[in-house]
Write a structure and sequence with these properties.
The complex is a heterodimer of chains A (123) and B (166). Helices cover 61% and strands 0% of the residues of chain A. With 123 residues, chain A is mostly helical. Chain B has a four-stranded parallel β-sheet with strand order 1-2-3-4. The chains are: A mainly alpha (123), B alpha/beta (166).
Amino acid sequence: MLLSGLSRYIPVLVFMVLAGVIGFSMLYLGILWRPKRPYKEKLSPYECGIEPFGDARERVVPRYYVYAMLFLAFDVEALFLFPWAIVFDKLGVFALVEMVLFIFILLIGLIYAWAKGALDWRY
Amino acid sequence: MGVFENKLPANIITTTLDSVINWGRKSSLWPFTFGLACCAIEMICAAAPRYDIARFGSEVFRPTPRQSDLMIVAGTVTLKMAEATLRLYHQMPEPRYVIAMGSCAIAGGVFDTYSVLQGVDKIIPVDVYVPGCPPRPEALLFGLIQLQKKIEQKRNLVREPIVVNT
């Protein structure tokens, strides 16, 4: 039988339904016979056997944020440099000037952050 | 309680399902990484290729109680550790099993002192005791097989038999 049109995708449909049924039954068939006896100790958060204390939402030094932002900027810069480096000899002088300009703009940002004291790790 | 847990009458379907469930449980007992003293070295040996606990489906040592079925208490349980042991046992999901490995875990061993718990069965229920100081890996594997035999006899869907006291 030659399948044509949308009916060519019937195997895909069968596959999706089968995958769904198998996945669903693997996850939820256990509800029928697994023991379920929740109590306070069992549900308590696991911290290597120690009594959990404190809040999970810890305070973080905001300096990390500045570092993360700076890292992101230079990470993306490196990301742009790689494809440019690969086709460097085909693009010529124009791309070189563009790239230097791009790095220069980011460099101004770095100098600004430096002057503002974002790179100092002092308390 | 589960929906059908110990609620169905015994017939060919339910008992067969029971044995399939038990087969699944006994063939993938994931131990909890719980080495407390020198017995842990023998436990590690049992997991290594020479003795190869993977032959019995128990090679997946889990570092969290949430994913483990079997707590192998391997070594001396000090009173300070007993508190953590109890909490970790409670944090394991059911069905959960305990093997007391070595003289110390069974009854305190040579450490009949103020700081050592005289047997882990004082705080948690133990399924299988593996004696030795420390037990050889073969002994631990034997204990594991004994536990598997114990699991085989459990009833999951089928009602427990009514015991009449006479």
